[in-house]
Amino acid sequence: MNKVWLIAWHEYRVNIRRPGFIVMTLLIPLLGLIALLVGAFFGGQAGAAMTEIFAGSSRSDAVVDHSGRFTPILPAYAEGFRLYASEEEGAAAVQAETARRLILIPADYVKTGRIRVVSNEGSFSALDIEESGSLRGFFIDHLARDLPDAALRARLADPFRAQVVNLAGAEQSAGGALASVLGFVVPYMLSVLLIVTIFVSSGYLLRSISEEKTNRVIEIVLSSVTAQQLLAGKVIGLGALGLTQVIVWVGSSFGLSGGIVALLGVAVPLFARPEVFLLAVVYYLLGFVVYAVMMGSVGALGADFHESQQLAGIFSLLASVPLMLAGLFFTNPNSALIRVISWFPLTAPTAMMLRLPMAEVPVIDIVGSIATLLITIPLIVWLGAKVFRLGLLMYGKRPKLVEIWRLLREA
User: Fold this and answer.
1) Where among 109, 126, 157 does a domain terminate?
2) How far apart are CA 311 and CA 314, in angstroms?
3) Do both 301 and 332 map to the same domain?
4) For the residues 393-408, what does the mean pLDDT come to?
5) Are residue 192 and residue 296 in the same domain, yes or no?
6) What is the Cα 60 distance to its own chain's centre?
């Protein structure tokens, strides 16, 4: 066992110093930081609009009422809306930034339903008008203020409060338009990052095997350790390397999420559920072992690094299947097809990473997928070591499928 850890430490120490690994590890946090800085410097208007839509504004709206329906303003809205006698006075308040925008209500408003909004916030003001719950409540309450039934007036102002459940009766979150968008994008990007880090680390494994095989160093190494020990050491060392990368990304994401909350006024859905990150680490480790062993074993069959990459590319394609079916994951993450994919060892890690942030995944699926991966790992390590040794000792040609099958049968 000491030999396994010695090999693992060597692989970790050598590869963590590679410029490619350092750049890839720091690139994701750097891009996130740049995005926040760009938003802070050039997207102040967008950030202000988003904050006002989802968190409310500290400035009042100027109102010029020619219909008479909104005069006087109800006490509940006195802080957020202020009446002005003319359009010129209201426009001056907007220009001086004492008012956020000017709402012009014409005399024929009740008949046409049209209003005019004067704002210096550009196109984001239109988004605000469409999504602003306070503005909708302002109009409804004032139009219904003459109704004798107070309960009816309150219900008109807040017509429904939806509790969204699926067919199984599980409650689903409904955090608004922006939260829905983030709920779609974030798990998809997290799954992409999971695949990237797995195959970047596995790429180092392929390169290490190919270099040692080409330089004939592998013959000397195999005189001191077994093929199983060599493969296990490389997988552990490069798995730790990939986990280091994930820890840096997740740690920086927690820091950057504070900037996202400050800029947009909403929380990224994943950060509200820490169990998702815990399971992400579990699926990452199990997924890496499965893919690394299979890619390392099959990659050893190649005559050189490029041929090994082509052989290992099969597993990259399999891991990407859940991303190709992302539409099904987002529309019904607990459907029968998605559940089957989540139990298949070669698609389980990425499939579960897509499902977990989107819905309450049945416990049986989580336990079953993890158990399937745990059962698969010893089997592929044993079979992979046989293929790994065969590939390492063959130079200049790729073993035929018949030879591989005969070796596995004899094993």
Assistant:
1) 157
2) 6
3) yes
4) 64
5) yes
6) 36
Structure tokens at 267: 């929380």
Q: Is 174 exposed, middle or buried (0-12, 13-18, 19+ CB in 10 A)?
A: exposed
- What is the pLDDT averaged over residues 352-371? 87
Helical residues (DSSP H) of 265-302, grouped into ranges? 274-299
**CA dist., res. 269 & res. 178, Å (int):** 10
List, in order, residues 6 or more apart from 393 with CB less than 8 Å away.
219, 222
- Say whether pLDDT at 252 is over 70: yes
- 73 and 64 in contact (C-beta within 8 Å)? no
Residue 402 belongs to some domain of the structure: yes
Alpha-carbon span 74 to 51, nearest angstrom? 25
Query: Can you tell me the distance from the alpha carbon of 103 to that of 109, in angstroms, rounded to the nearest whole number?
Result: 12
62 shares its domain with 137: yes
Q: How confident is the model at residue 126 (pLDDT cuts 50, 70, 90)?
A: very low
Q: Is the pTM of this model over 0.70?
A: no
Q: Are 103 and 61 in contact (CB under 8 A)?
A: yes
Residue 87 included in any domain: yes
The CATH code of the domain that includes 90 is 3.40.190
- DSSP assignment of 186-217, as one string? HHHHHHHHHHHHHHHHHHHHHHHHHHHHHTTH
Q: Are 50 and 91 in contact (CB under 8 A)?
A: no
Report the candidate in 367, 218, 347 with the shortest Cα–Cα distance to residue 291. Answer: 347
Does 94 share its domain with 34? no
Burial state string for 80-113 with b = 16 or more CB within 10 A and e = fewer than 16: bbbebeeeeebbebbeeeebbbbbbbeeebeeee
Q: CB–CB of 380/290 below 8 Å?
A: yes
Residue 80 shares a structural domain with residue 131: yes
Count the residues in the chain.
411
Token readout for 153 is 């007036």
Q: Using CA atoms, how far apart are residues 238 and 176, in angstroms rounded to an integer? A: 41
Tell which of 157, 188, 216 closes a domain: 157
Q: Express as a percent the part of the chain with pLDDT over 90.
A: 7
Strands 116-118 and 81-83: unpaired
Q: Which residue did the predictor score with more confidence, 284 or 189? A: 284
Say what the pLDDT of residue 375 is: 92
Confidence bin at 400 (pLDDT 50/70/90): low
Going by their DSSP bridges, the two strands 60-65 and 81-83 should be labelled as parallel
